[in-house]
Amino acid sequence: MTYADIIVDISHEKLDKSFQYLVPEKLKDEIQVGMVVSIPFGRGNHVRKGYVVGISGEPKVKGIQLKSVAGIENDQETTESRLIALAGWMKENYGSTMIQALKTVLPIQKKIKAQEKRWITLLISREDGEKLLEELGMTRFKARIRLLEALLQNENGKIEIEKKAGRLVNLEKALESHPLRGNIGIGHTRWATHGKPSDVNAHPHGDENNHFVIVHNGIIENYMDLKKDLLKKGHVFKSETDSEVVAHLAEELDDGDFFSTVRKVLAVIDGSYSLVFMHDADPDTIICTKKDNPLIIGLGEDENFIASDIPAVINYTRRIYILNDGEIAVVKKDSVSVFSADGLPISKKVQEVTWSAEAAEKGGFDHFMLKEIYEQPKAVRDTVKIHLKKDGTVFFDKLNWTKNSLENIDNILITACGTAYHAGLVAKHYIERFAKIPVSVEIASEYRYSRPLTTGRTLCIVISQSGETIDTLAALKEAKRLGAQSIAVTNSIGSSIARETDVAIYTLAGPEIAVASTKAYTTQLVSLLMLALYMGQVKESISLELVKKLTAALLELPKQIEEVLTEKEHMSEVADRLIKAEDIFYLGRSIDYAIAMEGALKLKEVSYIHAEAYAAGELKHGTLALISAGTPVIAVATQNNVRAKMYSNIQEVRARGADVLGIGYDDDHELEKYTTGIVRIPKVDEFIAPILSVIPMQLLAYYTGIKRGNDVDKPRNLAKSVTVE
Fold first, then answer.
1. 3-state secondary structure 71-139
2. Which fold has domain 168-361?
3. Residues of the chain with pLDDT under 50
4. For 436-486, how does the pLDDT look when each residue is reduced to its tens digit (9 = 90+)?
5. Pairwise CA distance, residues 282 & 248, whole Å
6. Which pTM was predicted?
7. In 151, 177, 463, 630, which residue has its Cα 20 to 30 A from 594's Cα atom?
8. CATH homologous superfamily of 2-105
9. Phi and psi dihedrals of 115, rounded to 5?
């Protein structure tokens, strides 16, 4: 019997060793050290390429059934044994894997595939090249000019990547010691969704050889299936991100035509995205496209720009294209061509931006608060999709709960501050309804001093937009000290709370600049509702039919939020009646009471008017004494089981002269009988309603604040992240 020691063509430390294979009788007279062979490898016996580094007549380990060599790669040259020895020396002295060292020393003559590239290299001096470029500038040979410019800018013909985790200053420092040259480039500051923030997970991402390089904003929902398939085909991934799979797909599907290859990639990926592609064989071209995520193109003079929004380009141009979903743009420095998803040319209208640079930073809105209110459809959409399976059920990839693990939880503690505390009050209703586990909601600043009865059978859920709220962090540490398991719901990857908790669940709200939280709050509600559904799903305390019904409703929610946002003029008119008020009362029952508390807080934060929320059933226990003629009252009535009682409470304050604005469903014709005004929201499931009903109250707070002349983005005495006790 003849045996071959083979290095598998996979560059991975765990596979950096030789594997012994049986040589079939038909190959034993041909096989030699240095040959390239085909071998079955792994559980699936996928055919891989390998390098023969030894031949023997005895097996290394007796009694083990060995796999057989499948064949000899006849299109590749046999390597001398001395070069294999050299590769071994390189491995030991330079810290490479054996396969990396082999590929460095082997004189392999591969059959050229159709998709492999021809390299164009500048063979004259830089001085001569620059002189030639100057001469060509006086001619009409534009293609030659572009090619020569590209060669002068990037003499090695390859795409260079430099990236750093954290703030841009980190990248600036790296570029000081390693400057990049080129006439085109792409970059992206990405809020992490897959993989912890790190240099390797930062954008841009390329395939193994950086033939294709991309930046991506959004989520590739089917990236795991695509990645598994690409791994089987020999692709080696560098990062933990979903984005990197796009670059590898482009390399795998490359047909020699950049535009055609991009279209092939788009045909197999699912999810939301803004995508920008570079290709080393097309050094003067960038291709970009979008689905659900914003993308614009700024049109300059002999230069063009691609960005997620207008503020990024307004200092360079005021002429832009706004891409629609599915459109693909081929961008060069002196031209922009836009095509449909089918590859047909599209004539785009140039938009002229008239905003000031300051206004542009706010996306054309007067204030960040209003901009962030209007960003809620996208934020909700992104947050829903990250936890939703194709069959309509819910998953959390960091939670490996079983029915037994949830049965070991006796009670749940939710602790938070401010707006996040109000989200926790809503979550109590969600969890108790779906998971059937008792929930207590504690103000974080009070929890530590209450001698809590937290135990090892308690699940502690902390909620914080910034992940840095000092009271919430302290409460989390105390709960953990007492033995509790912990989950954090936060908008900030790598924050103190995210690092301290056992599992961090991230909302995809994106940066929230205004102090008064809006989109962070609604995405917290979405995340907490999906967590409650997941608990019920695992515990089997809720039917899958109800899970799918509610997740389907969540998918419709962004459109419904957009519909509610059309009430902005109405809320501006209501604000006119509030600006002189000294006291404003918010009423609700059940979940609506928690929403009323958030509405009152928003008004207090930005208008500086005293506003309080009350459980409507408590009116008769003292609060009615505060109601007089003309007192503004905002009443939320979306919960079916208490709606009739809510009507009675509204009549109680109306009988004492209150001016009542009702917030209810568009099919609720009873509510308008008892109120002096009404704001309608689309009819939705009562567990979805809290996310919709808070939107008009956000708008009301905003317009009341600006009509009183306040800085709604930076209210007095408040900070975005409270890091002091």
1. EECCCCCCCCHHHHHHHHHHHHHHCCCHHHHHHHHCCCCCCCCCCCCCCCCCCCCHHHHHHHHHHHCCC
2. Glutamine Phosphoribosylpyrophosphate, subunit 1, domain 1 (3.60.20)
3. 108-118, 723-724
4. 999 999 999 999 888 888 999 999 999 999 888 889 999 999 999 999 999
5. 17
6. 0.65
7. 630
8. PriA, 3(prime) DNA-binding domain (3.40.1440.60)
9. -90, -5
